[in-house]
Automatic annotation (TrEMBL):
SMART domains: RHOD. Signal peptide: none annotated. This is Rhodanese-like domain-containing protein. It comes from the Bacteria. Residues 27-117 form the Rhodanese domain. Gene3D superfamilies: Rhodanese-like domain. SUPFAM superfamilies: Rhodanese/Cell cycle control phosphatase.
Amino acid sequence: MNTLDYFNARLQATISPMDYLKSIKINPEKYFLIDVRNGPNNLRNITIKGAKVIPEQELQNRLNEIPKDKEIIVYCWDVWCNTASKVAKFLLERDYTVKELTGGIAAWKEMNFPVSDSTQKDSTPNNCGC
C-alpha cells in the first residue's frame, strides 16, 4: 500500500467530529452514532448527544438495536483506544456500513460539541475488556 492508498483508506474509514456535525445538519437520518466504550458507567456518564450507548462487550447480544439502513458511526475514548476499530471491524464483517469517529469522546469534548450527561450510580465491576 502506498501513501496515497493509505490516506484514501483512512478517510473512507473515518469521519471527523466537524464533518459528522456538518453531515447530520444536512441529513440527520443518515447516521446511527454508537458509544462503544467499555468500563464502569461512572466513567462513561458523558456521551455525545444523540449517541446510542452499546458497550463493545455487549455488542454481539444487542445487534438487533443497530439499523442496517443507516451509516454507523462508532466512537470510544480517544486516539489511543482501539475499541471503536474492533467494533467497526465486527460490524463490517456483518455487512453494516461503518466509520469511526476520529479522536473519540476526548476530541468531541475538546471541541465543546454537544454532550449528554447521564450521571448514574454504577454497580458494574470495572471490567474494561479493552
